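Batch manifest line 1067
LIGAND: zinc ion
JOB: complex structure
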Amino acid sequence: MASLITCPHCGRRPTQEFTIRSDASLKRPAPDASQADWHDYVFLRPNPRGRHSEHWHHSAGCRRWLVVERDTVTHEVYGVRDVVSDLAGGAR
Amino acid sequence: MSSFRLEPSTTGAEISFTFDGKRLKGRAGDTLAAALLANGRQLVGRSFKYHRPRGVLTAGPAEPNALVTIGSGAFAEPNTRATMVELYDGLEARSQNCWPSVDFDIGSINGLLAPFLGAGFYYKTFMWPKAFWERVYEPLIRRAAGLGRANHLPDPRRYEKTWAHCDLLIVGAGPAGLAAALTAGRAGLKVILADERFERGGTMLNEREEPEDFDLGEVAAELLSLSNVRIMMRTTVVAHYDDGVFGAVERVQKHLAQPDPNRPLERLWRIVTRHTILATGAEERPIVFAGNDLPGVMMAGAARYYLNRRSIAPGKQTLIFTNGSSGYALAADMEARGLTVAAIVDPSPSTPWAGKAHVIDGVVASVSGGRRPTSASVRQTGSSETTDTFAVDSVAMSGGWSPIIHLACQHGLKPVWSDEFAAFMAPEQGGLTVAGSAAGLSSTSACMIDGAQKSARICADLGRAISPAFSGDTETSKAPRPLWHVANPTGKAFVDFQNDVTAQDLLLAEQEGYGHIELAKRYTTNGMATDQGKLSNVNAIGILAEARGLSPDTIGTTTYRPFYTPLSFGALSGTHVGPHFAAVRRSPLHEWARKNGAEFVESGLWYRSSWFPRKGETTWRQSVDREVATVRASAGICDVSTLGKIEVSGRDAAEFLNRVYCNPFAKLPVGKARYGLMLREDGMILDDGTTSRLTDDTYVMTTTTALAGPVMTHLEFCAQVHWPDLDVRLASVSDQWAQMAIAGPRSRDILSEIVDADISNEAFPYLSARDVSLFQGALKGRLFRISFSGELAFELAVPAGFAESVADAIMQIGARYDICAYGVEALNVLRIEAGHVTHAEINGTVTPADLGFAKMVSAVKPDFIGKAMLRREGLVSQNRPQLVGIKPVDPSHVFRSGAHILNKGAAATLENDQGYVTSSCYSPHLKTTIGLALVADGPNRHGEEVQIWNALKDEYCVGVLCSPAFLTPDGRLNA
Ligand SMILES: [Zn+2]
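JOB STATUS: finished
ARTIFACT:
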């Protein structure tokens, strides 16, 4: 696990200031999506070896939710983005 | 003859200390180990398993034998390496692992049991009968084994933790580290140079002379003059984490006879650096031969330190067993001081030697003696028998050098075997450079040139090009072929001194199929002692490799993990001890509650007022019963400031609330409060509370005390991740507002005297919520007409700083109306009587329907958190445990929360379980215990008699299920 995370708002901060939630690639299904889709979204979590993107909350900092892309094997951090910039750049 | 000091007067001021109660003299600048050796005290401890006599083996952090307890009482610190303890006046040291004394130890009888204590003995011997393990074997082993004893008294000393940041961290202030620091310091980099010793110089301290062009004093003086270089002595870098973060422990005052009580004893550092140089040096390897553990057998490099730095001779007749040049350097140093070297034994002699001592091409077959060596048998190369026997009083050994590379291997990278250096070398990695003897170099000048050159390269990389402080060639000499152990030993030949693991044990492990390094480690316990195998691991790998006919590379190493050396719990805890172990949150009404006599209860980090005993009340129940009765009869005031308060604002605040609550919020009018249920995405209730609309686009939400934080986090996730397109802002205002409940029939009368506006039922009906002016405009507050107790009630929020004065005023005015302060216990009784739920019921397994809130759940909202999964089959089953009231059939019977509900006559089995009591209390109005319970199909079973069973407390009574509302809607008790 990384020791330091560079928050786009607060700069380089110790990992202990953050709280990890889960896989950031999961998208909340539409309200009328199938029960199977909802089941997958709520209960199933990948545990990949290698590159992984997660939602991290800068809970002891700016209180923004971030997307941290990191490697679960090498611990390398590829990037940290605010969730909103993530959406703006992608599937918004 | 034992070890002794030559020319004592030249070595520093005389100071006194005690060892096992005996007063001894040492010299300032001695380590405890040096002082013991100077006193001829070579036997300092007993070994772990066989209780063999042991003495000082090294002069550094790898010491496996000379472990002592320093200090006494609460200050006692066991398993301290005497080689790392700086002597101070009055130091108290005690030997360990021996009884009644280190000189006569009953446990040494274990040595006679040795045939039964070999590799895997835990697994083989103590197998049967099974029950004996816990009751007999383990306690016996624990008492007999183990090293020092931890004391159980609170540590009165202070510790702290802190951070440091730099461009270049240099670990080790030996020739390589000093030269690297000088180079980078001149280049203007922010440098931290850390070393665990108290003297700069590293292995230079072992040398008789400094090399040319390296004046230690000059280098140190220049470093000290550079403000960008921070030298941290007595600081062990113990851990290497990701992103250039290192852990280090600084022994701030451990060397002082009179530590300053206002300063920490130790300081734990987290050092963040851009680049690191490991100049950690190399560890000299023992040679594995019979009798290599006798007190008086010492590492050659250590003997050089004691002789050259502390003027201590190992003895008068020293045999040197060396594979490589180290032993020759010692021989030269000894002869220069007029000491006798009995012989130099070298299995592959190639070092030039012009001294007096005779060099024998061979090995030491055994060293014998009782508590110190008396003779040594030498076997010449090519011979299978002893060829020479020497009368000796001390032995020095050197099996070669292993680079100290722990910090380079602590996150998964494995060391790499080098045939050239006959050693495991650090794996290459970004951000970390290994220099000096940690990189396999041997001479002081090569190390210093290497450190300077590598540092210069880093400076250039970091944009500060500079020429190295020293330059020249860094030629390396090929290491001799390693000698992992002397074959066919005639006695115990130790690999791991601290855990008493012999070469024979490792060979047995290999024979029995535990030859894999990780298995052999656990089977023999090699490398598992407090020294973590610093001296033993490489020899163990070599022995297993040789036995299996493989290269050490194929065997590989065990896993390196932090910490490099043991750390005190004090350093790890820092200031987080005693009252500072956890933060304390006090309500803004804490002082008000205290002066009204409150008893407090811990609730998370909060201290909440629990009840307010009055004169004559001797039990908590008397106080709580009175408080409940007073609220129902007249009025009470309760601190509810610990509730979470979140302001939700923005154009889309209404829409946002509508999506996070399962019940409708879009049409809540300004000036109104509404009870809301917030679900998790899986359909279970997350939290409940009221949310009030203060203006068109401003709401204030309350959460339960326990979930104030998690709800905020949840809302932020919803706002930022799910619906970033909504214009909504969230602000926690929990600490800004104090909040008090004023409940009871006279509550309106009391509040009317401080609230400026009309709060009659017409003007301020049920669920009103408004900003109000108080005390004729002196203060602004927020008033809510909400009730948790079932009575006419209000909640008044005021800015936290005014809380105490407002509560005082209410108490003063309320006195005319017989007001009382009530705490969370009475609040709990009031809410159970009213059938209101808390987190006792909202326990993560309940849906709105389970608590009777089915009708609140919006059927028309297109989406809200939890909507989709609430449809799941299992969540709509009639047989789900659902909320009911419960009371005993015989009012004198008592039951408790947690008790299970069974049908009448049913046996207590899992299949027969109908549910459980979630909350219970004594109701002073009903004069009986009442409770809330979650019972299968509960709402359709009111009036049914059931068994209430609590196996834990061995309690059983007959109860009857009823409506959870023990009060009728008009406020009368539903008795
Ligand atoms: Zn931040």
